[in-house]
Amino acid sequence: MDNGSTDGSAHKLARWAQSHEVPLSEYSDPHEQPLKEISQGRKSGMQHIILFSLSTNLGFCAGNNLGIRQAKINGIPYAVILNNDTIIEPNFLSTLIDYAEADPSIRLLGCQIRYADARNTVWWAGGTFSFWLTGKRLYDGQLSSRLPDKPYPTEWVSGCMTLIPLPVFSRLGGYDERFFIWCDEWDLSLRVSRAGYKMMVVPSSVIYHKIGKSLGLNSPLTYYYSASTKHHCYHTHI
User: Fold this and answer.
1) Enclosing H/E stretch for 42
2) For residue 33, what are the contacts with CB-CB under 8 A and spacing of at least 6?
3) Mode of pairing for the β-strands spanning 49-54 and 2-3
4) Which of 168, 199, 208, 222 could connect to 108 by a Cys-Cys bridge, CB 3.0–4.6 Å?
5) What is the pTM for the complete model shown?
6) Which CATH code of 3.90.550.10, 1.10.10.10, 3.40.50.720, 3.40.1180.10 fits the domain covering 77-237?
7) Residues 72-117: pLDDT tens digits?
8) What's the Cα-to-Cα distance from 11 to each of 2, 28, 80, rounded to whole Å?
9) 212 CB contacts (<8 Å, ≥6 apart)?
């Protein structure tokens, strides 16, 4: 999903797919070309890339909903939401899927997220809510060695990396597109909890986050979306 970027990202991805002989289907606008089922190519490795090169930025929620609808059409069992400013460990996804398959009562999974510029320091490894629905990141700033060895429950899962079965995502109605960016993770987690599903952190699955690379930590857009989306989240769930 290329959400209206202007840095040539879509072209770079298409060029990479071509050089690695990975089949690629590209859409310039979701309203011009209907989503359709694609044939499976390779038997192993990356089978197919579906690239949406959108002319405008739909926002985090609407953009992810569009991609996940395509995944559902093609019978993909899980949706993985992963920020573009992350670096992954090779087995981060297989570790999460193995745990999801082992316990069907757990329907929202997060991994251990560390700072990209401090590889042994935790950024997110679980979260709690206050009475006012403000989210707190557990273990933030602590050494990763202090985390539990086994998976443990959380009240919300970070939107930086989320794994959810597609049937559950569809049943919940996907992301609330009134959130352009931020607070989407809290809203989705609250709806998952109210639907009776469990949420867990799998600390053996690890990624690294380059904090604030999308909008910047102190940019005007950061303050604008932070204030407006938190206000909407509060009035939606109280």
Assistant:
1) none
2) 27
3) parallel
4) 199
5) 0.84
6) 3.90.550.10
7) 888 889 999 999 899 999 999 999 999 999 998 999 999 999 999 9
8) 10, 12, 23
9) 222
